[in-house]
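Example 3.2
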Amino acid sequence: QVQLVESGGGLVQAGGSLRLSCVASGPTLMSYAMGWFRQAPGKEREFVSATSRSGASSLYADSVKGRFTISKDNAKNTVYLQMNSLRPEDTALYYCAAADKTMVVILRQWYDYWGQGTQVTVSS
C-alpha cells in the first residue's frame, strides 16, 4: 500500500511559481509511474503531467506544456511538479498519483493510489 502526501500549494500571483512535492510512504516510488492531476471547482479531474517508472520519460497536458516540469527523485521517494508562469486558470486542487506501470500513464483510471491534494490558487 502506497500513501502519498502532497505539499507546496498556496496562493500566488499570476506569473509566479510554485513547486509541488509528493512524498510516498510504503513501497518505493522506483516501482511506480507517477502523475499529477488537478480539479477545479465544478470541473472534472484532469491530467496535468506524468512520468515513467524510471523518470526518463514524461508527458504534459497542452495547457501546461513549457510552463510545468515533472521530476522524480527515487532516492527521496518524492515526485515534484515545478510550475512557472502560473495563470489564474491553473487554480485547482492538485493531486499526485502512483500507477503500478512502467510507462507514462495519462488515464486516471489506470492509477492505483492517490494523495489528498494540495490547493493552488493563482490571483490575477
